[in-house]
Specification:
Elements: E1 4-7, E2 11-15, H1 21-28, H2 31-34, H3 43-60, E3 64-69, E4 75-83, E5 95-101, H4 110-126, E6 130-135, H5 140-148, E7 152-153, E8 172-177, H6 178-184
Antiparallel strand pairs: 1-2, 2-3, 3-4, 4-5, 6-8, 7-8
Helix pairs in contact: 1-3
Length: about 180
């Protein structure tokens, strides 16, 4: 059974539950959505990601969540908090936020709306002292949203990941401290 973690004007953010894999694959696993984040996943990779998210939520009280559109009841995004786990990153273990939104719901403000709720959750209930977000220089929409959310570019946290193509290197990071967030409220 999924837990409702947050609600916004248009979205319900809920934990990952058994049986979400098919919707995730059908709605959020396209070549366009996944082009800067490792490419389209195989079904077993989605299952593993869901198992990991459920285990993290049970263990740490946070993970990635599904964004469900209130008006339709449909899954429109995947967003939340995890730990930086890339061993090449200089800040492994930090609280990392991220998102992806269905292509047919792009340019409606859902990513910003969901991430503002995730950031509030991270700072008020999870107790994160600061957050980071990772992307590639080529993923302009992503890093522009990071900036809109008040995040600051952290060149000192950049790293090269040979698992990604040249256009998606280096991996770049943005950060937001709890104090920065509080001062912007």
């Amino acid at each position: 059974m999924a837990d409702i973690v947050a609600e916004t004007k248009r979205l319900v953010l809920r934990s990952v539950a058994e049986g979400d894999e098919a919707d995730h694959d059908r709605l959020l696993n396209s070549a366009t959505i996944m082009r800067h984040i490792g490419g389209v996943m195989e079904p077993h990779e989605i299952e593993a990601r869901h198992a990991k998210a459920m285990a993290m939520y049970a263990r740490e009280g946070f993970s990635f969540l599904f964004a469900v559109e209130k008006a339709s009841g449909e899954m429109v995004g995947y967003c939340g908090i995890k730990r930086v786990e890339n061993p090449l990153a200089p800040n492994t273990g930090d609280h990392e936020i991220g998102w992806k939104i269905r292509e047919d719901r792009w340019r409606r403000g859902y990513a910003e709306e969901a991430m503002r709720a995730v950031i509030e959750w991270a700072f008020t209930r999870v107790g994160a002292p600061y957050l980071v977000a990772l992307t590639s220089p080529a993923n302009t929409g992503c890093w522009k949203l990071m900036e809109k959310l008040g995040m600051v570019r952290r060149r000192d946290l950049d790293f090269h990941d040979p698992a990604y193509p040249a256009q998606d290197n280096p991996t770049i990071q943005y950060s937001l401290s709890k104090e920065q967030w509080e001062n912007s409220q």
